Amino acid sequence: MSVLRIENVDKSYDDEPVLHDVSFEMDRQEVEVIVGPSGSGKSTLLRCVNRLTEIDDGAIYLDDEEIHSVDENELRRRVGMVFQDFSLFSHLTARRNITLGLRHVLGLSDERATAKADDYLERVGLADQAESYPAELSGGQQQRVGIARALAMDPELILFDEPTSALDPELIGEVLGVMKDLADGGMTMLCVTHEMGFARSAASTITFLDEGRIVERGPPEQLFENPEHDRTAAFLSDLTGLHQ
Amino acid sequence: MTTNSRGDAVGTPTGRSRQFVAGVGVLFWTWLLARWAYHNTLLDSVMTAVGLADLIRSDLGVSQREPWVPAEPFESTADSIGGLAADLGPAAVLAEWLAWPFELAALAVSAEPAFAAGAFVTIYLTVIPMALGLFIALPTAVARIYGGPISSRLSLAFTELIRGTPLLAQLFFFYFALPLAGVIDDIWLMDLSGAPRTAAVVAIVAFTINSAAYQAEYIRAALQSVDAGQLTAGRAVGLSRMQGIRYIVLPQGLRYAIPGWTNEFIYLLKYTSLAAFITVPELFRRAQNIGSDTFQYTDIYLIVALWYIALVLTTSLVMGKLEIRLAVPGVGRAGRE
Fold first, then answer.
1. Which residue among A160, B60, B91, B104 has the highest number of C-beta atoms inside a 10 angstrom radius?
2. Does the ipTM exceed 0.90?
């Protein structure tokens, strides 16, 4: 049974088409990496999955349930999201960033939420920063809190929207490390990222999106070694070259 | 009521000057609190019950109260300096100038019981409307930003109506045009001794509504300065819109609102003087009355101005402390430094 099934999704912003007839499916424990030039609709696609943006046409199924038949808050509880700019709640400590959703969405007691938050902070290596405010953390630490915040809600799927793009190069590794651990631990992940090293080692499938259409989709070896389209080859070699 | 400047009038004086300011402040407030306690009805009944009938004198009317510092030495000094004037010929002006501070001090000392009583009224005319106004301003600001077409327009109409008309006109409208005064008179509360008089209650109602409109604008601006991504992140966790506003936008926005809110506090503190026009015996009304008794209008208005400055400085000091206390790294004053 697929966790996520996207069928013929179309989306435009003010007559500007962003997604055309996008369809794919993800199974449990799969890591799907979406790559593509900026403006190709990658982030929009992620936001359609948790309904931060509404699709114009087509259908999206989470566990075979059409997402528009699910309450949007319930949907978002089941689908975590990690943002490019971290978007930690700036008035709350790292721990409180995590407990907010646990308490007010999952309805956990303060005590249980705190214990759970501390567990997840430990998993991302930030047990000692529980009392720090976002402004006191480095970008890499903030993003790890962001991941812990998404993870603590026990989601069926986590969306990563360019999680390392806003980070200084030396901080990217610690975030990718956490993501790799998650992937190895069997988390289902839909990631927009340009980190080709991560894509190669962790992705089950890579999707190349250009101008709102899926150009090519397949396992990493195939896309890196034997791409069907010249555009895919050119884009991937550009990215890989950039990061070597 | 334009609002350009922050209410942050008090900087951070250092060393000796800081100690001096703190000393004057402590002295002023100790004495003011003691004065209020000394004439407090409630405290009087408690003390009488425990057998200390004469400790608290709430039976004395304001005009019967004696100043705690005698005015006589100041008066006689002023008189003796003034007496020299006759012998000085052309330099008489100099003697009059020298005598003036002592006359002023004598007037200030003898007006003290009346001003202490007036300051009490001024303060509750400020604090109660600020607090009640906040309860109206919060939903008004939230409705304006996040409400549907009807609630946001209602909110806009309310703020523009109130901000578009003079406060004095609003006060007169509530006092003379609405049957509010009659209604308040009928309420049982007004029979209790020590309860504010009808006019004061009308003033509280008018100031509450006026202040709510201004507070709503300060809060609206502050809420809009919260990054939109914060609410999005909250929604992405599964919070409803209202939960997101309550747990994410308001805690951040209200911290940003404190400087503006302080400004409104200070404005209202001074604008409560308009209540004098509907006979509420607050600071300014007391000054007018003393002026018409003594004909020392210039001096008494100067003294009452000092009273307002003392109250305003206290407000900005307290609010500045509150702002620092509530700030978290990244949000609020401490975060900006």
1. A160
2. yes
